[in-house]
Amino acid sequence: MPSAIAACKFVGTTSLGLFTGVSYSLAALSIPSLLALPSAKPAQHVFVSLKQSASLHLRSLAIVSFLSFNLAYVLSPARARHPYLLWTALVAGLAAASDLVPTQSLIGEQDDVNGETVEKAVKASQRIEQARATVGFAGFAMAVIGIWGDGA
After folding, report:
1. How high is the pLDDT of residue 21?
2. Structural domain that includes position 125
């Protein structure tokens, strides 16, 4: 059983680390580069595609992390049920729920796309990804410190 608990902690920490890395790269690299596209129409198309793809992968990583930390907590004997597992699972759950925050979206292809609207949506999305990366990093740091403290 201890190896199953350690595996759950490892999977949860790795998933949360990947979540943080993807969120950070979206906020720092991918999303800002959309503003360099020559016109609003291709920027809107790429933005919508990027948001849909990234949302699916980020939500999956956050849910895997959430479930792994909760499973590690449930499988742990009473003397080893550290609260950091629940706190880290909570942070991963918040990261997964961050997709539910309403944002200015450009879902749906339109023939006449306004460049200012695209720029607003891209900048709003960048701020959300920065916040998501910050939350993910906080959870990842808790998980690493918790595993280090466990000696696992």
Report:
1. 95
2. 2-150
